[in-house]
Design a protein that fits this description.
Elements (H helix, E strand, L loop, with lengths): L6 H33 L29 H13 L1
């Protein structure tokens, strides 16, 4: 195993952190857009333009159920160390 101060490891950690930030931002934007769609006024015909399908959709960016950020990081590091 490489030591903790290994530059590659430091870079990987920074990349994983940046990815997590990006994911959170995208999920926040997504929920904001959903809210805006719901707030949109009805048009003259009385039909709402908001999406009717309100089921929560799983994000392909999110960490899988039961997976911690550390697991995700280990997964990414394993890929790079191959």
């Amino acid at each position: 195993k490489s030591p903790l101060w290994d530059p590659n490891r430091v870079l990987l950690r920074a990349m994983v952190d940046a990815q997590q930030q990006l994911i959170q931002t995208m999920e926040h934007m997504s929920s904001t857009l959903d809210r805006l769609a719901l707030d949109r006024p009805r048009d003259r015909r009385g039909s709402s333009r908001a999406r009717h399908d309100q089921r929560p959709r799983s994000s392909k960016f999110s960490i899988h159920k039961g997976q911690t950020p550390q697991d995700k990081e280990a997964e990414v590091i394993d890929i790079f160390e191959e």
